[in-house]
Every structure is written in C-alpha cells, then in structure tokens.
Amino acid sequence: MKTQPWLLSPLLIFFIAGLVLGQTYPTNIGHRSRRWQRPSPPSPPQEQTYPTNIRYQSSWEEFPSLRNKIGSIIGIAPFRDDRSERLYVGHQSGLRSVSNYFKSEPFPLEKAISDSLSQAVSRLGMKTVPIHDWDGKAESLKSMGVDSVLAIEITRFWTEGMAAGNATKVITSVYLTIRLGVKKEGRVFTKRAYVMKERTIPTLTPEEVERTLNRNLAGILDDFLFNPY
Questions:
Q1: Residue 2: inside a domain
Q2: Is pTM, for the whole model, over 0.85?
Q3: Which end of the chain has fewer surrounding CB within 10 Å, N or C?
Q4: Three-state secondary structure along the chain?
C-alpha cells in the first residue's frame, strides 16, 4: 500500500508546530519565574541593654530607735535572688520593633541592694559585717559576734513599659522578704513587702526606670528600718 504524499503534509505541519510550541512555552515560563522574587523577611527587633544604677537611698535622715532595737553591730547575710529572670530588672516594648532591656548596675541585683543597704546602715552609726553561714534560725545567733543578722530574698523586682498610642504604660512591682534575727530578743522577725504601681508617662527612659525602681526599694526598706519588728 502506498502512502499518498498529500496525507503526509498535515502530519508534518502538526509535528513541526509541536516542536516549536514545545521549545517556546517552557522558555516563556522560565522568563516569568525569573521576574518573581521572594519577599524579604521582616527585620529582627532592635534590642539594646541599658545599665541601671540600683541603690537604696533612704528618704529619712535617721532612725532614732533602730540601734536600740537591733544593736550596733549588724551581720549582713548573703541576699538571695529567687527571680526566674535574673539578668534584667526591666523591659520596654515599643513600636517599630524596638525592645529595650535594663540591667542592674552593680550586678548581680542582690549585690546592688546589699551594698547600698550596708552603706545606709553604716551612715546611721552602726557597723556592718558580712555573715556567710547563717541558717536563718534564732538559736544560731547566740554563737555569732553580732547583735543582729539581716537577710533579704528577692522574689520580684521589675519594671515593664508597654507602648500605648502616644504614651507608655509602666507597671512596676517589687516583692521582698526581709528576715531579721535579733540576738537579745532570741527571735527571727520576717517581713514580706509587695509593692505594685501602674502609671502612664510619655516615654520610659533608662533614667526613669532607675528612679522608679529605687523609689519602690526605698519605700520598702524605709518602712522596715523605721519599724523592724
């Protein structure tokens, strides 16, 4: 059987057209794909850490009955920081992915409070000495060469600033447990002080964090020194 030449022409045309389309179609897709670009990931938050000078500054010039109650030689036991986040004392979250942290200076926080409290007591005419092995019990006071022993546990010490429109909402909370062992009384007195304050200010600066935390710390320790038990 012979194939007629006029039957081959449509087949040949279809075959050639398929080759042309097969070459040009993928080329067009590749050209389009090169124009599309993956969107850039968002910029990471800008973070900065500011030193915050934590210190006890009493608002009272003197505590006349303090020496009569606790004696003239005060042992300062190691203060303890029980917070879950010990590196910082505050945080500010703002607009435009800005996030600031505030770190105690001196560091760690328990040293900053202990040193400043020792200086304040010394200015009142009492001597402070470090105590390393107090078990927190009244019986152990008898063998110590001091009149009283003071220890503090830090449960909360934090300032949080949150952007709220054109202002900043600031929440500050300080929670301390103060233990005072008095030898002549043969007792250990415990005070738990918790302060939380909320306010709105234009902006939260490192200086404002410092003033806020120190003001709360002074309020707690002033109340304790005025009436230790």
A1: no
A2: no
A3: N
A4: CCCCHHHHHHHHHHHHHHHHHHHHHHHHHHHHHHHCCCCCCCCCCEEEEEEEECCCCCCCCCCCCHHHHHCCEEEECCCEECCCCCCCCEEEECCCCEEEEEEEECCCHHHHHHHHHHHHHHHCCCEEEECCCCCCCCHHHHHCCCCEEEEEEEEEEEEEEEEECCEEEEEEEEEEEEEEEECCCCEEEEEEEEEEEEEEECCCCHHHHHHHHHHHHHHHHHHHHHCCC
